[in-house]
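I have a small job for you when you get a moment. Would you make up a two-line entry for one protein for me to read? No commentary is needed, just the two lines. Write everything out right here, beneath this request.
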Amino acid sequence: MNKHLTCLGGLALLFTAAAVETVLAQAVPQSAVQAPAGAAAAPYAMTLGDMMNTLIQPRHAKLGLAGHAQNWALAEYALVEIRQGFAGIVKAVPNFHGLPVGQLVDAALSRPMDAVDAAIKEQNPQKFAAAYAQLTSGCNACHSALDHPFVVIKAPDASAFPNQDFNPR
């Protein structure tokens, strides 16, 4: 009896899979899934928002978490990564809505990043917290200048990186 039920269950699974495949094939035209034969795929160009979300925002969070944990080596690394991220962004998107991205980043973030760097070198948690707050305010000032005041950055209150230990070694 169990062999018959197992066989029937397997057949039911096959029929269900075939039915789902048929429905999907009818619902989504092949032209939406595949490029026409012989056509080259268009390369994807990241937007400024894509770059900020992938290059800067996680590093800003990691910098804050590392500084809070007083992991100065990791904080220094995260700050270098932020600077490198912005250097790449400025090359990729020199202007946004007619405004020079490099000048905006420099005006809003150079002094705060230098203050964060000094606090890291001094291994001073109070100075780090103040400088990090200035950096975060600089991010938000830049967003406002670019007509994106709704993009509000804050210091992380929890880690979004459960696979990374921020405690110093």
